[in-house]
Amino acid sequence: MNVLIVGSGGREHALAWKIAKSSHVDKIYCAPGNAGIEEYAECVPIGVLDFDALVAFAKEKEIGLTVIGMDDPLVAGIVDAFEAAGLRVFGPGKAAAILEGSKAFSKDLMKKYHIPTAAYENFDDPEKALAYLETAKFPIVLKADGLALGKGVLICNTLEEAKEGVKEIMEDKKFGAAGNQMVIEEFLTGREVSVLSFVDGNTVRIMTSAQDHKRAGDGDTGLNTGGMGTFSPSPFYTKEVDDFCQKYIYQPTVDAMRAEGRTFKGIIFFGLMLTADGPRVLEYNARFGDPEAQVVIPRMKNDIVEVMEACIDGTLSQIDLQFEDNAAVCVVLASDGYPVKYEKGFAIEGLDTVKEKESEGYYVFHAGTKREDGKIVTNGGRVLGVTAKGPDLKTARANAYRATEWITFANKYMRHDIGKAIDEA
Ligand code: AMP
Ligand code: GLY
Questions:
Q1: Which residue of 68, 119, 216, 341 has the lowest C-beta tally within 10 Å?
Q2: Atom of ligand 2 nearest to the CA of 230
Q3: pLDDT of residue 224
Q4: Phi and psi for 151 in degrees, rounded to 5?
Q5: Per-domain residue ranges for the chain?
Q6: Cβ distance 249 to 199 under 8 Å?
Q7: Domain 327-424 falls in which CATH fold?
């Protein structure tokens, strides 16, 4: 079968790498892809929101399965467009992708179905939001309703900051139409954990846990980014936490979506906060995390195409999802200045050194790269994700940092404390 992957980041590179190992796959295409994905897939310059062109391409190349990596096309209804054309596609339809596409929707869903989350109110009128803040407790969290590249969340310590935040989101429209509505919610403290799952509409199968580091600087300082590194599993995700989440969060979410007539098939990413009062849902995403995928997928034992097909066919209950009994750490190599201002076009050296050690558990996933005059050059803020495995988290972390030394490019920047939290576990 031929497979088409939609997306162009480190997550899609990890997906392409894993899909290439499937015994069911003949040829892989990726739209638009990047210089790393080229090793496994023929990259085609079609935009991820150009549904007509993507559907036409899938028909022409007799694609048997299309895998959507990114949130934007999912929320915009790419799965509906493919299904209407009679094509098989992995991911939630538009009605279900709203779980990520609207934070106001997901909060109301959790309230209605008693899924534990932070206390909140939704607003579509800035005056009402401002009035609400007058009696609120601080810190408080403001969230633009829609997709905002992971940047639409503001944690405000004072009334003044929060008022300014409401203005930015709802009046200045700093995050565009994503700010037509907003959620104001209680500030929670605790460990964050990312739990990804496969869902077939009824059954949910949890993958191994992970943790992301969203801030740009060491010690969780600086601006929020798409993610500067991850580790898996999270030592804070204990059996007790898992039992609680299975009972009160995972299956209840899938059942709630079905009850709402929004049957979810694909990936649900549960962003959890492990508070002193138990786990709470911070957010849902409708796709693999990036860079969570870069530590979770390399540890997955199953043929991923079989699992994706089981989600589409509603037979996930027959799949025994298995992960290696080890650990992985991914350190993102970025361009200095990310996420604000950075230069592109610098030649990258040392990629082959990592590639040669794949059998020892070293991987490099491209995020923002392209090929120029036969050389691979930087082409984004997040450039590469260097992943290493190890028998335990400490070894995996040491391995990942060793591998970051093998790769060089001008303005290379990384955090030096990815996975440091595990020392406290
Ligand atoms: P989200 O996009 O909803 O995951 O929010 C982005 C980040 O903001 C999360 O990863 C948390 O670090 C933080 N965050 C979101 N909601 C809350 C909350 N209610 N309390 C504390 N931190 C939060
Ligand atoms: N790494 C967080 C996300 O993919 O949303």
A1: 341
A2: 1
A3: 87
A4: -110, 0
A5: 2-91, 123-180, 191-318, 327-424
A6: no
A7: Glycinamide Ribonucleotide Synthetase; Chain A, domain 4 (3.90.600)
pLDDT at 112: 98
Binding site membership of 154 for ligand 1 (Cβ less than 6 Å): no
Q: Among all chains, which residue has been given the structure tokens 């992957």?
A: 5
Alpha carbon of 148 to ligand 1 centroid (Å): 13
Say yes or no: CB of residue 94 within 6 Å of ligand 1: no
Whether 132 contacts 123, CB under 8 Å:
yes
Residues with beta carbon inside 6 Å of ligand 2?
150, 212, 227, 285, 289-290, 292
Is the CB–ligand 1 distance for residue 185 below 6 Å? yes
Class of the CATH domain delimited by 2-91? alpha beta
Q: Give the H or E element holding residue 186.
A: strand 182-186
Number of the ligand closest to the Cα of 294: 2
pLDDT per residue over 379-408, tens digit each? 999 999 999 999 999 999 999 999 999 999
| pLDDT tens track for 320-372 | 999 999 999 999 999 999 999 999 999 999 999 999 999 999 999 999 999 99
Please tell me the class of the 123-180 domain: alpha beta
Give the closest residue (by CA) to ligand 1 atom 7.
153
Which of the four CATH numbers 1.10.3720.10, 3.30.470.20, 3.40.50.300, 3.30.360.10 does domain 191-318 have?
A: 3.30.470.20
Write out pLDDT tens, residues 163-214.
Answer: 999 999 999 999 999 999 999 999 999 999 999 999 999 999 999 999 999 9
**How far apart, in whole angstroms, are the C-alpha atoms of residue 411 and residue 60?**
42
| 8-state DSSP, 220 | T
Among protein residues, the one with the nearest Cα to ligand 1's atom 5 is 153
